[in-house]
Write a structure and sequence with these properties.
Elements: E1 2-6, H1 13-24, E2 28-30, H2 31-40, H3 44-55, H4 61-72, E3 81-84, H5 90-103, E4 109-114, H6 117-125, E5 127-129, E6 136-138, H7 165-178, H8 180-188, E7 192-196, H9 201-212
Parallel strand pairs: 1-3, 1-4, 2-3, 4-7
Antiparallel strand pairs: 5-6
Helix pairs in contact: 1-9, 2-3, 4-5, 6-7
Bound molecules: adenosine monophosphate.
Length: 213
């Protein structure tokens, strides 16, 4: 399977990508994760990307396309892949088409996660992360045992710069402007499979097996 994950920030693309990866043994290629890694390691890409990410803007296409091209050249991609958070613009979708054409392969699914803005804001503004081991918490649905402290490694939990409420609202606007048109593109190709963003975690495995066939 060769899958792209579409859907607004905080809709559960990452959670679904992990379950699919486990179910079918395929690598996840997550541009958000790779960019955050580059920021942490202060690489040239990371330094360029940071300010865009902190304010919730899309990182320029040439940077993201470069990262994805490099990742897609690795041998594990032959098993299939899950692209999480890419493409996010028409330019990126065109680049992905070129990458796939060169390899002589096609996408099999565009999994679109659907969730309302209200639920997304509630989810992301209450999300907290560990800056040391990267465990993720939610103040209501998955609180740490001790307030503000990571259960796993004891570090002080933080709110991601781009999970602050005003930045979330801006990210949603950016999503609607840039990414929404991709839905029409992949709909025309008959690749869209919808996933309700409110399905509880316990039911996700079965749900994903069912919709991916
Ligand atoms: P995410 O974790 O997927 O929500 O991504 C976090 C941030 O990384 C986004 O708000 C963007 O600034 C940047 N980013 C991730 N993927 C892309 C992409 N495909 N194109 C441009 N920017 C991206």
């Amino acid at each position: 399977m060769r899958i792209i994950m579409l859907g607004p920030p905080g809709s559960g693309k990452g959670t679904r990508a992990h379950i699919i990866s486990e179910l079918y043994g395929m690598p996840i290629i997550t541009t958000g994760g790779m960019l955050r890694g580059a920021v942490r390691e202060k690489t040239e890409y990371g330094q360029k990307a940071k300010s865009y990410m902190d304010r919730g803007d899309l990182v320029p296409d040439n940077i993201v396309n470069g990262i994805v091209k490099e990742r897609m050249s690795k041998p594990d991609v032959a098993k299939g892949f899950i692209l999480d958070g890419y493409p996010r613009s028409v330019n990126q979708a065109d680049t992905l088409d070129e990458i796939l054409k060169e390899k002589g392969i096609k996408l099999t699914h565009a999994l679109s996660v659907v969730l309302s803005d209200e639920v997304i804001i509630e989810r992301l503004s209450k999300r907290r992360g560990c800056p040391v081991c990267y465990e993720i918490y939610h103040l209501v649905s998955k609180p740490p045992k001790k307030e503000g402290v990571c259960d796993r490694c004891g570090a002080k939990l933080i709110l991601r710069e781009d999970d602050k409420e005003d930045v979330i609202k801006y990210r949603l606007q950016v999503y609607k402007e840039n990414t929404h048109q991709l839905l029409e593109r992949y709909e025309r190709l008959g690749l869209i499979v919808e996933s309700d963003g409110e399905i509880p975690l316990e039911g996700l495995r079965d749900h994903l097996k069912e919709i991916l066939g």
